[in-house]
Amino acid sequence: MEERWPRIVTTRRPNEVAPNLLDDDAARRRFTWARAREGLDGLPGGGWNIAHEAVFRHARTQGKKVAVRWLGRHGERLDITYADLAVRVAKFANALNAMGVGEGERVYALLPRVPELYVAALGTLAHRSVFCPMFSAFGPDPIASRIRIGGGRVLVTTPALYDRKVRPVRAQLESLRDVVLVDESWAAAMDMHAGTYAIGPTPANTPALLHFTSGTTGTPKGALHVHEAVLMHHLTGRYALDLHADDVFWCTADPGWVTGTSYGIIAPLVCGLTMIVDESDFDGDRWYEILSRERVSVWYTAPTAIRMLIKAGMEAAKKRDLSSLRFLASVGEPLNPDAVVWSEQAFGRPFHDNWWQTETGGILIANTAAMEIRPGSMGKALPGVEAAIVRRTAKGVEVIDAPDAEGELAIKKGWPSMFVGYWNEPERYEKCFVGGWYLTGDLAKRDADGYFWFVGRADDVIKSAGHLIGPFEVESALLEHPVVAEAGVIGKPDAVAGNIVKAFVALKPGCKSSTELVDELLGWARKRLGTAVAPKELSIVPSLPRTRSGKVLRRLLRARELGLPEGDLSTLESSK
């Protein structure tokens, strides 16, 4: 393979801890899941509970250690120790019990990054209910559809978010029986309940997490994960992110996204370290200040944020003391090679890319701390993970062994955090597996040394600033406007966000195009979908190209937008 970028071998600074994993094929072959289980407690009666491994076991052995350091948007600062976190989690679990919430019932959260979000997540898991996070940037329609699909029993939110985004659709949510408001009465309400909680039997396959992800057509799909996933969270925290107990770790992802739950809540706490939670949205100066002041040692962020830091210039990084940083990792979309090289120059450390999906529940392919980095590569499969490049055939799938051959990335079934179903969609779930392989829908290739390289998406899902966005959901919202006859949505490459959502609409007869109407339609979409999902650009066109069956030819729209040949769509790429 021709390489345009230098290979990078990370060197340790004096007195720096050794990586958790040596890049040695023999060590990978010696790995067993039985040995991985030895790093966790398990429940006294058997089984696994995420809240026990993340909170309660540490409260007994290192209760005074800071588990969560919360930084408020207005300068507030709150340290929550493992002992304090255990009490808060127990009170919320007891509150659910008092409300009659049962095992397996779904508890939704619509909250900014405030301490109560993390307490609600862990308390739900301790109670053996199913936790389902949502972005606070969502509009009423995405919120309503997700609660309806999952049959949400409880919603935890703020009064302001409830009034703006839930109250307008409350009548549609028949399953929603209780709304818990995070306001000035929260502490008093929680203090009504005991600060200890006995976790009941939690077999490995007990449902734990419901994460929604979008497809190219149809409604959002809810990927269900079980408590045994904690084994993968622990393993990947140690191996892929090189977490040690004395680290200060910052994952910038919102828990509304699977990364913000798996690696912004579970993995760091299971590994027993101190994690940073910042309530504010991206701000380059604020981020550098946090990295410096809090002495962050391991930082996990998204390529969109990295590109925004690059845009601000290297001097902003150079004027801060960032010597505490020893490991940087990236997630959410392909990390462009120049960003890896830039970070080596700016921080003296390269960003380590990795790969996983909502469905995988945890990192499966990564550039570990002990590996030579090949900028642009996702890295190698982690121990216990069998990954391959395959092509679909009439009889199933065929593994492609030739180096650098392109095909679909597939993972052999059996890793602990593998999703166990799409909520109430068994047929949709079964279609993801062929011959014992999970087919990811991502196109990739593997070089002769086992490094995987992302090529593109096999479908039309849009990845914008780390968010997976289904075109159908955006198109549906636009079609609700009284003047819109047709709508088609694509991902348009963007230097900062990776892709932005671009919409094309055709108007009903008698309606005239104007710049004012374009602004009105963009505002309409933002109100219904929220800024994270709504289109950033919109064009009014005479008509949309469709297949004979009526489906919008999104790839043709994208080819025309980018000036690509319409007759050869194989050159098109979509985001990871």
Describe this structure in words.
The chain folds into two domains: 8-446, Rossmann fold; 462-571, GMP Synthetase, Chain A, domain 3 (2-Layer Sandwich). It is 30% helix and 25% strand. The chain is built from 18 helices and 29 strands. The strands form seven sheets. The chain has a nine-stranded mixed sheet with strand order 3-2-11-10-12-13-14-15-17. Strand 2 and strand 3 (77-81) form a beta hairpin. The chain is globular, with a radius of gyration of 23 Å. Mean pLDDT is 91; it is low at 567-576.
Relevant terms:
29 strands, 30% helix, GMP Synthetase, Chain A, domain 3, alpha/beta, 18 helices, 576 residues
Helices and strands, with pairings:
Blueprint: E1 8-9, H1 25-30, H2 33-37, H3 50-61, E2 66-71, E3 77-81, H4 82-98, E4 106-110, H5 115-126, E5 130-134, H6 140-150, E6 152-157, H7 159-166, E7 178-181, H8 186-190, E8 207-213, E9 221-226, H9 230-239, E10 248-251, H10 258-270, E11 274-278, H11 284-293, E12 298-301, H12 303-312, H13 315-318, E13 327-330, H14 337-347, E14 351-355, E15 365-366, E16 372-373, E17 380-381, E18 387-393, E19 396-399, E20 407-412, E21 421-422, H15 426-430, E22 433-434, E23 437-446, E24 452-457, E25 462-464, E26 467-469, H16 471-479, E27 484-494, E28 498-507, H17 515-529, E29 537-540, H18 554-562
Parallel strand pairs: 2-11, 4-5, 4-6, 6-7, 10-11, 10-12, 12-13, 13-14, 28-29
Antiparallel strand pairs: 1-16, 2-3, 8-9, 9-21, 14-15, 15-17, 18-19, 18-20, 20-23, 22-23, 23-24, 25-26, 27-28
